[in-house]
TrEMBL record:
SMART domains: CBS. This is CBS domain-containing protein. It comes from Alkalicoccobacillus plakortidis. PROSITE patterns: CBS (PS51371). The keyword Mitochondrion does not apply. Pfam families: CBS (PF00571). The keyword Nuclease does not apply. Keywords: CBS domain. It comes from the Bacteria. SUPFAM superfamilies: CBS-domain pair. InterPro entries: CBS_CbpB, CBS_dom, CBS_dom_sf, Diverse_CBS-Domain. Residues 18-76, 90-145 form the CBS domain.
Length: 145
């Protein structure tokens, strides 16, 4: 009988788990922070990818990064929502994975990140891989006989 490990090693590709770029909420580098906050609140996501005009991955923006950048010495400075851009506040250190990466690599990376950005060699954005989809697959295999 196949063990869970055998099954995960056989089911080696992440491709079927990827949420394709056209279904991923994102913002652009030069968008005002206000726009990013609206997209985050409306979508209900904690963080979303930041792309440039040629659809290349440039970073990630989150509600907490936005709140941090609004914080002045004593108060929140709400005018920064229109004066700062996403590029001013985003995190450029984004966990990435290639579309042809193995499931095992995705599993290791997702320990520390709720989602991974899927990019090709030129950093063109092809989608995301969530920790949820990885855990769902593991759970499916655990409960199969
Ligand atoms: P989930 O596992 O569905 O809770 O997603 C985990 C995180 O992945 C979310 O909080 C978002 O940061 C990101 N995410 C998931 N789906 C999307 C999507 N369609 N568009 C943008 N970000 C997403």
């Amino acid at each position: 009988m196949q063990t869970l490990r055998d099954r995960l090693l056989t089911d080696n590709e992440i491709a079927p788990l990827i949420i394709s770029a056209d279904k991923v909420a994102h913002v652009q580098l030069n968008n005002p922070l206000q726009h990013a906050l609206l997209v985050l609140i409306k979508s209900g996501y904690t963080a979303i990818p930041v792309l440039d005009s040629s659809f290349h991955l440039r970073g990630m923006i989150s509600k907490s990064l936005i709140l941090d950048s609004l914080l002045g010495e004593h108060d929140f400075e709400l005018d920064r929502l229109s004066t700062l851009t996403v590029g001013d506040c985003m995190n450029q250190d984004v966990p990435c994975i290639r579309p042809e990466a193995t499931f095992s690599k995705a599993l290791s990376l997702s320990i520390n990140h709720p989602f991974l950005c899927v990019v090709d060699d030129q950093k063109a954005f092809t989608g995301i891989l969530t920790r949820r989809s990885i855990l769902k697959l593991i759970s499916k295999y655990m409960h199969q006989h």
